[in-house]
């Protein structure tokens, strides 16, 4: 399933905005939508609203982050899917007048009440999406053979460094549901559960191998290898991998040729490992309706600035690898990084801006792959300067002094020379820029002085 449209009304900085999420054209790549814009334009609010509407305020899936962002009694968040399913969340005390507009958010038929939880009322048109949160919440309450099967799932992660040391005293299957906190953003990744799952997979693989079940042993090893492979490509370390020795059952990591504890990894690597490994673990543990390989599964992935702790070299690699790894996923991510924006193909760049006090969609642009970082900073992020603020201010004063000199103000010569000297001392690049401009200035002055 695929979210085609989102509407937010009186939520966060949005008065009333509808965002279309058209499918990509390359079926070998996940559909990617990048949310950009200044702080305060509602990038995270969009992600929180999507998570809230899908989760239906089911506590097991994560704490609701939408209700506190609803500004008035008319507040509403709604989505429309490609199976004609509509879901909406409104405040419990919305008025009868508001009901007419809230329950038919996209101009279609009104949406019947599904349930009320906390401060929110949830409405939906029926279909698989409306049952998703209820089915996910029932995972642990049902006998194993009676648990609902899934053909789609949703996950949300934020750019947090949530990997720490875990001491494993006994190997056992994770007891938590694969849906626990899956839409919570900051609590989604659980190091303890991840380490136990890796140790358990390794133990089961060894048992299957010992019993002569080679195919089963390979199946158990595959998901771990997938995690190791994508992380290794991002961090440019082909030997990256999880390590379990015969000394204990603790999970460690081979990083740059050295085996270290999880808690000693660099912050950027912790961030990558935490959400990528957690995502693959959850996908592996969910009871699916069929035998489709894990990497081919259909799911929604919400990413709130997961690039925040990453070096630019790694920022350039994360989404392209994930986009290729999960071709049937829908990925909606917020970012402030031009390195991320220029990295993905077949993506939509949704730029938000403030118009007065309200946030609006300023533009929806095509993939920026092949564009320079300077061009993207200018066109997507609205930053025209190539230098820091202080240097830019000195350049502006230099240009103003140059214009005064060309206009006949001889006293401006001292300012031109002084500012040119200050700028030239800052870097070789500025020395060349100022030198070229001084050369041009001298030619213009000489032509004017010529008889």
Describe the structure.
With 451 residues, the chain is of the alpha/beta class. It folds into two domains: 3-160 and 276-379, Rossmann fold, CATH 3.40.50; 389-449, no CATH class. Helices cover 37% and strands 20% of the residues. It has helices at residues 43-55, 96-102, 128-137, 191-210, 214-235, 267-285, 312-325, 338-341, 373-379, 389-406, 412-424, 428-449, and strands at 3-11, 14-20, 31-36, 76-81, 86-91, 113-117, 120-124, 153-158, 241-243, 252-255, 258-261, 299-304, 330-334, 347-355, 358-365. Strands 2-1-4-5-7-6 form a six-stranded antiparallel beta sheet, covered by helices on one side. The chain has a six-stranded mixed beta sheet with strand order 8-12-13-3-14-15, with helices on both faces. A hairpin with a 2-residue loop joins β6 and β7. α4 (191-210) packs across α5, α5 runs antiparallel to α7 (312-325) and α10 (389-406) runs antiparallel to α11 (412-424). The longest helix has 22 residues, at 214-235. The termini are far apart.
Largest sheet: 6 strands, antiparallel
Ends distance = 77 Å
Percentage of β-strand residues: 15-25%
Largest beta sheet: strand ordering: 2-1-4-5-7-6
Poorly predicted segments: 95-102
In short:
With 451 residues, the chain is α/β, with parallel strands linked by helices. It has helices at 43-55, 96-102, 128-137, 191-210, 214-235, 267-285, 312-325, 338-341, 373-379, 389-406, 412-424, 428-449, and strands at 3-11, 14-20, 31-36, 76-81, 86-91, 113-117, 120-124, 153-158, 241-243, 252-255, 258-261, 299-304, 330-334, 347-355, 358-365. Helix 5 packs antiparallel against helix 7, helix 10 runs antiparallel to helix 11 (412-424) and helix 11 (412-424) runs antiparallel to helix 12.
């Amino acid at each position: 399933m695929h979210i085609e449209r989102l509407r937010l009304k009186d939520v966060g900085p949005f008065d009333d905005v509808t965002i279309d999420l058209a499918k990509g054209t390359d079926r070998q790549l996940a559909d990617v939508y990048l949310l950009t814009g200044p702080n305060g334009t509602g990038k995270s609010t969009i992600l929180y609203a999507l998570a809230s509407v899908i989760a239906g305020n089911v506590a097991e899936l994560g704490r609701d982050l939408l209700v506190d962002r609803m500004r008035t009694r008319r507040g509403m968040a709604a989505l429309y899917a490609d199976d004609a399913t509509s879901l909406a969340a409104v405040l419990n005390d919305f008025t009868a007048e508001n009901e007419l507009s809230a329950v038919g958010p996209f101009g279609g038929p009104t949406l019947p009440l599904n349930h009320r939880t906390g401060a929110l009322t949830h409405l939906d048109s029926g279909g698989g999406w409306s049952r998703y949160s209820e089915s996910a919440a029932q995972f642990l309450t049902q006998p194993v053979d009676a648990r609902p099967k899934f053909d789609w799932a949703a996950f949300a992660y934020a750019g947090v460094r949530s990997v720490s040391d875990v001491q494993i005293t006994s190997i056992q299957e994770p007891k938590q549901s694969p849906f626990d906190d899956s839409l919570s953003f900051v609590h989604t990744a659980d190091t303890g559960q991840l380490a136990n799952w890796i140790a358990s997979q390794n133990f089961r693989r060894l048992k299957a191998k010992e019993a002569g079940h080679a195919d089963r042993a390979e199946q158990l090893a595959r998901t771990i290898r997938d995690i190791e492979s994508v992380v290794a490509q991002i961090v440019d370390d082909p030997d990256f991998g999880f390590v379990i020795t015969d000394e204990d059952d603790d999970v460690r990591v081979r990083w740059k040729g050295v085996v270290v504890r999880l808690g000693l990894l660099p912050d950027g690597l912790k961030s990558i490992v935490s959400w990528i490994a957690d995502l693959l673990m959850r996908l592996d543990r969910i009871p699916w309706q069929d035998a489709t390989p894990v990497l081919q599964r259909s799911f929604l992935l919400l990413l709130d600035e997961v690039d925040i702790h990453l070096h630019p070299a790694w920022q350039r690699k994360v989404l392209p690898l994930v986009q290729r790894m999960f071709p049937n996923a829908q990925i909606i991510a917020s970012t402030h990084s031009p390195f991320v924006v220029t990295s993905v193909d077949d993506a939509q760049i949704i730029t938000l801006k403030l118009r007065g006090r309200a946030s609006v969609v300023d533009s929806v642009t095509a993939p920026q792959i092949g564009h320079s970082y300077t061009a993207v900073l200018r066109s997507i992020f609205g930053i025209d300067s190539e230098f820091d603020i202080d240097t830019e201010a000195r350049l502006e004063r230099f240009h103003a002094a140059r214009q005064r000199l060309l206009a006949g103000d001889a006293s401006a010569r001292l300012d031109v020379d002084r500012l040119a000297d200050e700028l030239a001392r800052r870097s070789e690049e500025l020395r060349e820029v100022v030198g070229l401009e001084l050369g041009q200035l001298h030619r213009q002055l000489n032509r004017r002085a010529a008889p």
